[in-house]
Amino acid sequence: MKKECLGSVLAGGCIGLGGVAFLSLDNKVLGALLFTLGLFCVCTLQLHLFTGKVCYLFLNDALRMRDLAVIWLGNLAGTVCIAAVVRMSRISPLAAKAQELCAVKLSDTHWSLFLLAVMCNIFIYIGVENFRSNPHEAGKYLALFFAVMGFILCGFEHCVADMFYFAVANLWSGEVLVRLLVITMGNAVGGIIFAHLHACLLRE
């Protein structure tokens, strides 16, 4: 459990660092490319990220709902730590960019956030599964980069990335928590369904 908790906090921190890189650049394509370093670190360092793990909920007998809850909370703690460092440093003006990003999420409907989150985790599953099983080394890493860049440029919703944006923007409320949970559910549904359809295809 201690190893799982630490791995989850570190994973949240990595996504937070990716978020810092994204907010630091005005060029959205370049920002999306550098954000990919977050998932790259999670996969190469074998850390625990909710959006990656949830895809395998019913495909891995060792993975339980309790584990996912611990991972989600650990990811939240990691993103909050990175956000706190940002807010206390000279790059604190990034908070203004995060606030603009969060304003869009807060003005959206819950249904829209859910659907965008479903689509996001299809990308995440494609990236993570390729990293796990692609026989070509270059393919493993290209899949990660293209999958993450894809969901960012499409405007899809990633619950852990959003944890960071809300934390660095210092926007916490009951409504923010509800929206994070809606996005979390969307990520779970998208990842689980796509992973199961892929597993069925492989069994044919």
Structure in words:
The chain is globular, with a radius of gyration of 16 Å. It contains nine helices and no strands. The protein has one domain: Glycerol uptake facilitator protein. By secondary structure, it is an all-alpha fold.
Q: Got a strand count?
A: 0
CATH topology: Glycerol uptake facilitator protein
Basic shape:
globular
Mean pLDDT: 95
| Spans of at least 5 consecutive residues with low confidence | none
CATH architecture: Up-down Bundle
CATH superfamily: Glycerol uptake facilitator protein
Order of H and E elements: HHHHHHHHH
Total number of domains: 1
Please state the structural category: mainly alpha
CATH top level assignment = Mainly Alpha
List the helices and strands and how they pair.
Layout: H1 2-24, H2 28-44, H3 50-53, H4 65-87, H5 94-107, H6 110-133, H7 137-154, H8 159-168, H9 174-203
What does this entry show, briefly?
The chain has nine helices and no strands.
Features:
204 residues, mainly alpha, Glycerol uptake facilitator protein, 0% strand
